[in-house]
Amino acid sequence: MRSTVKDVAARAGVSPKTVSNVVNGLVPVSESTRAKVEAAIAELDYIPNLSARGLRNGRSGVIALALPDLGTPYSAEVAHQIVEVAHEQGWSVQLEETGHDPHRELDLVSKARANLIDGLILNPIALDVSAIRTGGNLPPVVMIGEVEQHQVDHVGVDNFSAARDMTLALAAGGRRRIAILGTTENRRTATANIRTMGYRQALDDLGIDHDPHLEIACDEWIPGGSARALGNYLRENQLPEAIFCFTDSLAIGALSVLHLEGHRVPQDVLIAGFDDIDHGQFAVPALTTISFDKRALAEEVMRLLRGRMADRKREPVQLTLPYQLISRASSAAH
Amino acid sequence: MRSTVKDVAARAGVSPKTVSNVVNGLVPVSESTRAKVEAAIAELDYIPNLSARGLRNGRSGVIALALPDLGTPYSAEVAHQIVEVAHEQGWSVQLEETGHDPHRELDLVSKARANLIDGLILNPIALDVSAIRTGGNLPPVVMIGEVEQHQVDHVGVDNFSAARDMTLALAAGGRRRIAILGTTENRRTATANIRTMGYRQALDDLGIDHDPHLEIACDEWIPGGSARALGNYLRENQLPEAIFCFTDSLAIGALSVLHLEGHRVPQDVLIAGFDDIDHGQFAVPALTTISFDKRALAEEVMRLLRGRMADRKREPVQLTLPYQLISRASSAAH
């Protein structure tokens, strides 16, 4: 027969209310009491009744984090920070991968309530945010990454300015043949679009004409994708003076193919990335990149999400985090 | 007033049972019916009663995945595969980070039932598995990674043989001063211990005496950790002929510091890693490594976990996946 909360209480020598407090995790319980109750739960193989989980105000204590692809280092670092901050604040994090599929993104938003998720942190890639109903019907959502919308709480970085700054930095010393790597042909991404606009703005600032041959498409934002794209490009085009890769992962693929083809970085071509992933600093040579505080992102996201849970009707908040251009050996002046 | 399942059914023009089927996700429902019900749920801001979530046999549809640190590329790639396979099979994945803390590992095991987790996939680092009670009290658990135990279902790779094979490969051509990088001083890890034993076995096979100066300690298994450890080592020791790094992340840090100090890879020293992370293939030079099929790992883990849920009393299963030594430029013969 299935054990009940009373069985656990009797075994642990505490009141049923104390068992409930341990299970719910909402009320502080002394370590020794907690240990006794947990031992009794384990010994009796007790499965708490769902309604015993203390879902005050219908809360489950679980938030969902939806990322396009968890397997990339940038996503992993962001997920790590969000999981860490959420845990510190008592939330469990359920992980969802959208796989660059706008239908899956919309599906997650519409199902968040039904799936007993208290809130959703969404890094959309292709989501048509106009498809998201605003107002009371929306689950508490905070978006991260690049989105062109103002209806939903959002934490991001000024990608336009960051891309312009990086392009200007690569142009220092009079370089004019500055390429970008990572524009996309087969899928829409706000990230690629905004960084491309920042790049073009820098060229305008410098009085350099846009050369479409210097905008190198790469749909797959992984090292293998950029190695293939840049390898193909170099068979038919001259080596640019500098290449601004739209992510560090793209830059790592670029460094690999340039090494294999005998081009020296930075002597023959400057390389820069974006994201400041942990491995970028240890690339050969070390990667110049755009950095922002991923821990601060996680903290702001959780702050906005809790605020949205508390007040579903408040005006959407748009937060912009500062970024830093970090110059390393891959773009060292020569 | 809070909406009920009847309100949703009326709005969608379906029966309450159909609403329940959509919410539970256990019974197939046509796409058009699902869309109508989900629209009604969103419009009415309906929050399903917990007991409506269809927890047949007390199941929540959620499994937990506990990793030491989600932020490293290897963990991220494994997590990505497990989340993908779990989703395909209808499970949500709740993510837990143990942060190399054995107490947190034990805590997760003991709380899995109380937290309404149907099963737990655990990659233990320091867990004293003898602390885990066996038999009916244990939640359904499958362990991955290196563990020295036979009481719990486990999927892994033969790390001893893989480390021996890699050491023998690096010794080909008569090299004798072969170092390892990644032994640990301040924390116990089964992974480091087993790989060290495989390395020493290879030296025995080759008739090479163990030289403790060639076992380079590094507690932090990230590029920054190995760059520091190897940098310090090289100030007081001669460059080895080859360095077998216990992970690709350690190897990437090693490549970085060797590049900065003017040592050429592979001309001056061979480098190898372990894990075959996506970025390793695009390191400069490309990394020799031990590879295994991470998708197959995820499939076997989910198969064992479902089997354990179905039969809590069956004998523990130990599955060993094949591995492959992939030779790339970082260890190319010269």
CATH class of the largest domain in chain A: Alpha Beta
Q: What integer value in Å does the Rg of chain A equal?
A: 24 Å
- Uncertain segments of chain A of ≥5 residues (pLDDT<50)? 50-57
Q: Which strands sit side by side, in order, in the main sheet of chain A?
A: 2-1-3-4-5-11
The CATH H-level superfamily of the largest domain in chain A is Response regulator
End-to-end CA span of chain A:
77 Å
Could you spell the SSE succession of chain A in H and E letters? HHHEHEHEEEHEHEHEHEEHEE
Q: How does CATH name the architecture of the largest domain in chain A?
A: 3-Layer(aba) Sandwich
Strand content of chain A: 15-25%
Show the largest interface.
Answer: A-B, 66 and 64 residues
Largest sheet of chain A: 6 strands, parallel
Structure class of chain A: alpha/beta
Number of domains of chain A: 3
Q: Find the count of extended strands of chain A (DSSP E, 2+ residues).
A: 12
Helix count of chain A equals 10
- Oligomerization: homodimer
CATH fold label of the largest domain in chain A: Rossmann fold
The backbone outline of chain A, from C-alpha atoms, is elongated
**Proportion in helices of chain A:** 25-40%
Mean pLDDT of chain A equals: 86
